[in-house]
Specification:
This protein is α+β, with helices and mostly antiparallel strands and 210 residues long. Helix content is 42%, strand content 12%. The longest helix has 19 residues, at 73-91.
């Protein structure tokens, strides 16, 4: 909504001189930043893009531009507040993930190979838009369907780890165990999750969870 309003307001402006009102000495840097703003997908993406052009950061540029274009502060603040709330909701899932249990017991597999394959038995729930602003029940229902689909796609073998026997969901400091059909097993015990790691120059490395 706000980006659309900005675009509409810009049609009545002399872009070549607008940079001075916004606070830029030259038009080049202003136009580059403006183009990035109006081509972004959402105010959330813009505010948290980390953009800085040595004059303004992304939020301050947006605020100043709206002031110059005479866009209401209430509309601006509403959009910024929505972006902040979205970010907070997204961050709630930062440590949430699904561990794919295969009851793996190491035999002769090299630790380096295991470390490289660690990513295959962890699915991060961070930045999964379909989970945001949902109740726990809704989230678990969504994950149930995703688990069922995952098992159907990997039914024979999960890389080096072997055959899948269950899924362990870590969500907001709680653990939920699902069977291979995506059914929540309330009576299921939590399984121990070992991590395959390698160390180089006394620094430990582990494949990124995703």
């Amino acid at each position: 909504m706000l980006i659309k309003t900005i675009k509409e307001k810009l049609t009545t402006q002399d872009i070549s001189s607008l940079h001075k009102k916004v606070g830029y000495n030259t038009s080049k840097k202003f136009i580059e930043t403006l183009d990035k703003l109006i081509s972004t997908n959402s105010i959330y993406d813009w505010i948290y893009s980390g953009h800085y052009d040595l004059v303004y950061n992304s939020k301050d540029f947006l605020t100043k531009l709206c002031e110059v274009l005479d866009i209401s502060k209430s509309l601006l603040n509403d959009e910024i507040n929505k972006a902040v709330e979205y970010c907070k909701e997204e961050e709630r899932f930062k440590s949430s993930y699904i561990f794919i249990n295969t009851n793996f017991k190491r035999k002769s597999e090299p630790i380096f190979a295991l470390a490289l394959c660690e990513k295959f038995r962890n699915i991060s729930l961070y930045k999964k838009e379909d989970l945001l602003f949902k109740s726990i029940k809704e989230i678990l229902d969504i994950l149930s369907n995703q688990i069922k689909s995952h098992y159907e796609e990997n039914i024979d073998k999960l890389s080096i780890w072997g055959k899948i026997v269950s899924y362990q969901v870590h969500l907001f400091d709680k653990t939920y165990v699902f069977d291979i059909n995506g059914k929540l097993r309330e009576d299921e015990n939590e399984v121990f999750e070992s991590k395959a790691t390698i160390s180089i120059n006394n620094k430990e490395f582990i494949s990124k969870i995703f």
